[in-house]
Amino acid sequence: MNPHLQDLQPYPFERLAALKAGTTPPAHLRHIALSIGEPKHAAPAMVEQAMINAIGGLSVYPTTKGLPELRQAIAGWLQRRFKLTEGSLDAERHILPVNGTREALFAFAQACIDSSQPEPLVLSPNPFYQIYEGAAFLAGAKPYFLNCTAENQYRPDYDAIPAEIWQRCQLLFLCTPGNPTGAVMKLEDFARVLELADQYDFVIASDECYSEIYFDEQQPPMGLLEACAKLGRHDYSRCAVFHSLSKRSNLPGLRSGFVAGDAELMTAFLRYRTYHGCAMPVQVQQASIAAWDDEQHVEQNRDLYRRKFDAVLDILGDVMTVSRPDAGFYLWPQVAGGDDEAFARDLFNEQHVTVLPGRYLSREADGIPGAGHVRMALVATLEECVEAAQRIRRFVESRL
Which stretches make up the Aminotransferase class I/classII large domain (predicted)? Predict the structure, then answer.
């Protein structure tokens, strides 16, 4: 077996299940899960219909590169959403469909890392999406964590990283808006990492799957390709962005997304994926075209999240240290006393509400930046989110 399998740590939800084992929540309270970022809003009807209409695609082998119509739909969406120069994004050269960002983020690291080099590193925010860590280990590299705390507005301080670390870096993961913090990178952040990538010769993988959940319609979060365009970097050199329909369109079960960026990177990644055997089914591609071509359902989705954040923060704002994130659908409150595991366990035991301890999303790196926080995913209905917030408030007040 691959010896690096031994490096993989238990997934956060495995740890959460162990934490809750032996508890007996009150049976008269329905369970409300705020622990997993699985959207619960209705899937768009036109996407479901597009899949039904394409059911004949079951008799056809899909190509790894995907339908030209899908890549064109993605290119059009990227140009509209991120204000890219007309013609700067070639659907033939710059875009690949993927079966959700999770598999693509993992696979991209396998394609990018040169494990023959001495002690290669994959840099990642901390707290983080655990796929980044697993991808690094199984590619023969080691993860190096960049702490994101309230003191740095949950955005890594790239200038604090020693030169010897950058010299070993082969891949830098960005997550903007951040999971779990909701922090959004600014143009100056992107400019700095691009400068560092050129200086030290590494690739930037920007996980942007939460980019379409934000609060101000006039100020959508910036993405890496948009930053490239603003900086005159129209070849997107060293850059790859990852987007998904899971959060944007409430389609986590569709397993549909894309990777886009540097044409040379896409050519190499396509070669890897051809052997990987990960072509997207044709009917999923047709459904994805319908989703990427429509913005009305996305705007309605954002409005639902705004209402939930308004209601929940109104209930919890004066009993917890919590604030509205820049974007995304997570709250990242601090817990009184700092014991996030005890908070999550006791909250479930007493109020039948599940949240995720922040330490489960972090690693030790001059401290555990997630410790003392819990992650709350406001993915349930407005009614359930309000009820959960009321129970959490009662739980917190019982300990004052």
Answer: 32-392
